Amino acid sequence: MTKQSQAIYDARTLGTGKMLTLGLQHMFAMFGATVLVPVITGLSMSATLLFAGLGTLIFHLLTKMRVPAFLGSSFAFLGGYAAVVAMGANQGLSPAESLPYACIGVFSAGIIYFILAGLFAAFGPKKVMKFFPPIVTGPIIIAIGLTLSGSAIQNCNSNWWIALLAIVIIVVCNIWGKRMIKIIPILLGVLGSYLVAACFGLCDFTPVKEAAWLGVPFKWENTAFHVFSNPNWGLIVSAIIAIVPISIATMMEHIGDMCAISSTTGINYLEDPGLHRTLMGDGLATMLASLFGAPANTTYGENTGVLNITRVYDPRVIRIAAVFAIILSFCPKFSALISCMPASTIGGVSLVLYGMISAVGIRNVVENHVDFTKSRNVIVMALILVLAIGIKYGAGDSISIGFTSLSGLAVAAIVGVILNAILPGKDYEFGANPEGDKAVNFEINPSLRK
């Protein structure tokens, strides 16, 4: 009996009550990170939970119900949302009016998943991944965290004591916490600092009192469909160009997650059901979520950590967690409670999160042993970092090129891919270094992966 089949057998002997408890635990594991994305971006909290649940179920359907993965909000696209909101502001649009345009960009990024899935199926990962080596993806991921750092500091400035409390809780739980405490440091950081802020009268809970207990998880004006009632075609094109290149990083993140889950369960999911199926599941979930004003989805490392601790790998437990998320999405009062969170709490959590995103990029470069004695590697990394950060803070988030605008991340990604393709001396081969291939993973506690 294989490691996974034994785990599934054990899960079936647990009974309904314990299965539901395990599912609830998986929901809480993803919860802290998943709800943070709409809090930071301004996207709908209820829609986020709804499409995290639905996206997970879609992913399971496309992967033959075999892969025990949960899909939650992706942090990799935060820079893209911020860039589109800045572009919209330059045209007199509010953040709420600009976010649906960003969602169109995310939808387009989801299409790239299907293209990549087709390429993987047709040519295999080695031939495709040579265009996205660590010398390109690593610096892009580093730049994502650094370009977002300014917004974290701005939020912290509202109350540094609350922000520092959130940071301390996250660090203590992540370093010294045991079992489940170690899995959900973000959630505990949010709850701890939020509670203290409420005790000191720093939160206004009027929206919570006014919110209904039941309601529809999304509003028409927040969806991507609403854009086409009076479209700004220039902003649509700009959003697509700004966000689609981020799919380079999220694709690597997806591969890292699949490797991590395979390592945990003892089953090679890259072969069966296949990376092309998992990519399609991730892409379809992202496309559906973006259409209804929810963040892009991605497979969650936090839930892989829960699998590692519980040793129960039955995918049905993950699907139970997805159903819990869907049920919770129909409670506007809960969404209002999250929206009342003080900016300083968001800032403190974001400060850690954005730093860890950049650290993931560094890890990607280090674990793949990128040779910086080669001038071509130095040039590629240097231009990616300088363009991404320089355009963000020196040119007002984006630069105009012809009829559209490009964010710093978009310019950096495009330049990086092109330079890597044309400069001589490429030496990266996907599969030659398994540790390096799975070094990209936007999770708060990568030490749990084995």
Summarize it:
With 450 residues, the protein is mostly helical. The protein has helices at 3-12, 16-41, 45-62, 78-90, 95-123, 125-129, 134-156, 160-176, 180-183, 185-199, 206-210, 233-243, 247-265, 270-291, 301-310, 315-328, 332-339, 343-367, 375-394, 408-422, 434-437; strands at residues 71-73, 297-299, 398-401, 404-407.
**Uncertain residue segments:** 444-450
Helix content: 55-70%
Task: Please state the average pLDDT score.
Answer: 82
- Strand portion: under 5%
In spatial order, strands of the major sheet run 1-2
Radius of gyration: 21 Å
Please report the distance between the alpha carbons of the first and last residues.
21 Å
By DSSP (H or I, 4+ residues per run), the number of helices equals 21
Q: What does the largest sheet look like? A: 2 strands, antiparallel
- Assembly type of the shown chains? single chain
- Anisotropy-based shape: globular
**Structural class by sheet pairing and helices:** mainly alpha
Run of helices and strands? HHHEHHHHHHHHHHHEHHHHHEEHH
Features:
70% helix, disordered C terminus, two-stranded antiparallel ribbon, two-stranded antiparallel sheet, 450 residues, single chain, mainly alpha
What does this structure look like?
This protein has about 450 residues and is mainly α. The chain is about 70% helix and about 5% strand. The chain starts with a helix and ends in a 13-residue tail after the last helix. The C terminus is likely disordered.
